[in-house]
């Protein structure tokens, strides 16, 4: 009946709207709209769009399911339901400002590391990655009973390496009970946005980081 269709339409649109209110932190201030559409297995059908920076983006297609679909699934004629289909890549591109869908198939840690976080509500915007190769150096050090805070180490590395530092990752730490000393190993990934870095250039910066680690934290380089 028309009344049933209207009730299911309201359920569908509320569910979709609530979904994107949770996905987009600023959804309450975003303009959105429902656009009539045509799909093979739903009628009536709609596309859901939001406006960002003056441009409208289609997020998904949806609609009331055709009775033939339900009947072919073994349900009787007194059933009614709705369906939607969406592309996760498109939503992620909008949420994080990712410009090219091909990046989702990248194994480049410069891209992947930007989205390695536990809080899905965290405001993250994609930062362009360099087309030039990475240079990877590890730094291992012994320290006393006081462990270096990784954020302090990150600050030191970025102060010395500047824009050439792409990533700083703590990859290993342990405590040697016999020596009563802690150990940490960091992986430092260097990369330039406009040129290929030379090994000699990176080694000079790395040596400078080692020197300042010893001066600031009193560590012993392993």
From TrEMBL:
Residues 130-222 form the FDX-ACB domain. SUPFAM superfamilies: Anticodon-binding domain of PheRS, Class II aaRS and biotin synthetases. Pfam families: FDX-ACB, tRNA-synt_2d. One of its GO terms (biological process) is phenylalanyl-tRNA aminoacylation. GO terms for molecular function: ATP binding; phenylalanine-tRNA ligase activity; tRNA binding. SMART domains: FDX-ACB. Its EC number is 6.1.1.20. One of its GO terms (cellular component) is mitochondrial matrix. It comes from the Eukaryota. It catalyses: tRNA(Phe) + L-phenylalanine + ATP = L-phenylalanyl-tRNA(Phe) + AMP + diphosphate + H(+). Gene3D superfamilies: Bira Bifunctional Protein, Domain 2, Ferrodoxin-fold anticodon-binding domain. Keywords: Aminoacyl-tRNA synthetase, ATP-binding, Ligase, Mitochondrion, Nucleotide-binding, Protein biosynthesis, Transit peptide. It is found in: Mitochondrion matrix. Belongs to the class-II aminoacyl-tRNA synthetase family. This is phenylalanine--tRNA ligase.
């Amino acid at each position: 009946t028309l009344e049933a269709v209207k009730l299911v339409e309201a359920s569908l649109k509320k569910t979709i709207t609530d979904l994107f209110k949770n996905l987009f932190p600023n959804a309450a201030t975003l303009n959105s709209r429902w656009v009539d559409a045509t799909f093979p297995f739903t009628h009536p059908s709609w596309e859901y769009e939001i406006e960002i920076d003056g441009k409208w983006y289609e997020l998904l297609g949806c609609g009331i399911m055709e009775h033939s679909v339900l009947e072919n699934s073994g349900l009787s004629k007194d059933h009614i339901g709705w369906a939607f289909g969406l592309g996760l890549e498109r939503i992620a591109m909008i949420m994080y400002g990712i410009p090219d869908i091909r990046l989702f198939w990248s194994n480049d840690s410069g891209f992947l590391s930007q989205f390695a976080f536990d809080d899905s509500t965290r405001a993250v915007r994609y930062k362009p990655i360099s087309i030039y190769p990475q240079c990877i150096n590890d730094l291992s050090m012994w320290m006393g009973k006081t462990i270096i805070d990784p954020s302090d180490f990150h600050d030191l590395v970025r102060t010395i390496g500047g824009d050439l530092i792409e990533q700083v990752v703590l990859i290993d730490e342990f405590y040697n009970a016999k020596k009563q000393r802690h150990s940490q190993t960091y992986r430092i990934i260097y990369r330039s946005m406009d040129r290929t870095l030379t090994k000699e250039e990176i080694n000079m910066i790395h040596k400078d980081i080692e020197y300042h680690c010893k001066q600031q934290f009193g560590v012993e380089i392993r």
